[in-house]
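Protocol step 4 of 5: obtain the predicted structure for the target chain.
Materials: sequence only (see below). No template structures provided, no constraints applied. The aim of this step is simply to have a reference model before the mutagenesis design in step 5. Sequence pasted as it appears in the construct record:
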Amino acid sequence: MIFDIHTHCFPDTLAPRAIGKLAFASGGLMPYTDGTLSSLDALMHAQGVDAFAVQNIATNPRQMKKVNDFAASIQCDHIYPFGSVHPDAPDALEELERIAAMGMRGIKLHPDYQDFFVDDPKLFPLYKKASQLGLVILFHAGEDFGYRAPFHCTPRRLAAALGHIDTPVIAAHWGGACMGEEVLQYLCGLPLYFDLSFGYGTKPRAQALDIIEKHGTRRLLFGSDCPWHTPEMELRLIDTLELSQTEREDIFWNNAARMLGFSGEGTL
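Step 4 output (structure tokens):
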């Protein structure tokens, strides 16, 4: 069984504009869906994914509630949407309560899109509230193809922030996109998860093996970052890493099941 922790989709009316804007900002990345939930769901099913999380992002305070309303509307037995809050929204803490009340398991924060450094003390009340509510926090980590440096969630900054978070943390993109050496130095071995999204073609195999050796497989989560990569692409990288059956089952299903609290042991 396979659970994809890192996918994206948008309301049908917004999907064409959102996908076009993001593809342009990222240097012309080719999307593998049209940005809608139906297109994402079809691709996941076709590529053998049994369940998946959708990572929503509130890119400004005004849209925060609409983003979370959409997230709640797509929740079902095999789709686990994450909500989002914007740190500059005056009601961000109250919105975290609403996210939890709607049954969502976590939130996505994108320090570059949302213009905050992950270790900025202004975020600490938000982290505390999310921790009290038991909401998992997934951070975009490392570089982002649509932005110039300085990047807002480097491994060193995320390591500093962890002391203020008492809930499961996921650092996307192998702990930090294009920052593998810093991941090895600052994050490997700490109590957080890495998702393995967008690794195909960007993560050197030798570095992936070093991260696995130092961090272990019990805190790794399968992810694709669809529509920008697909599950099959990420599987091509993982298939070269010489993992045991147990390690693969943990990465593909069991670690996410334990963290998000859904049942079942994934047997491949």
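Step 4 remarks: The chain is about 40% helix and 10% strand. The mean pLDDT is 97.
Proceed to step 5.
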